[in-house]
Predict the structure.
Amino acid sequence: MLRILGIDPGSRVTGFGVIDSDGVRSSHVVHGTLRLEGNALPPRLGEIFSRLSEVIETYRPQVMAIEQVFVAKNPQSALKLGQARGAAICAGVSQGLEVAEYTPRTIKQAVVGSGGAEKSQVQHMVRMILNLPKEPVTDAADALAVALSHAHSGITLARIGGNLRR
């Protein structure tokens, strides 16, 4: 069994989700969101780092999977998102985690079956796959989807001893 931490980075809200997976079956451990207050970016980045470090210390994942930056219409938003990703990645790397990155399209394809899926479809499929009592909020659902994407990737199957056939 592999414990995976999925991250949906954001400078205002960062989603996280932890699952256990054998590459075929996955089970929910925990999920949530980090709501970041204040206008100054540096303290929010520090909070992402410290709060994700606490999640890592508490749940002891073996790997972190994170959503790659997409090209936003607003360059300032893209820069802030990139910095939030950096803070999250640093939290994982500082605790010895391997970090895998996935595009939003790849994540949606892995979880919903369509790279152009809507957020509501991702929420619904995450709930169904992990047998959750209700749909998680969007950012947490996206983080769980990132973890599930990693769980079903060929890298994970190979790492846990599965046979990868193409």
In short: The mean pLDDT is 89. The chain has one domain: 2-159. The two ends are 23 Å apart (CA to CA).
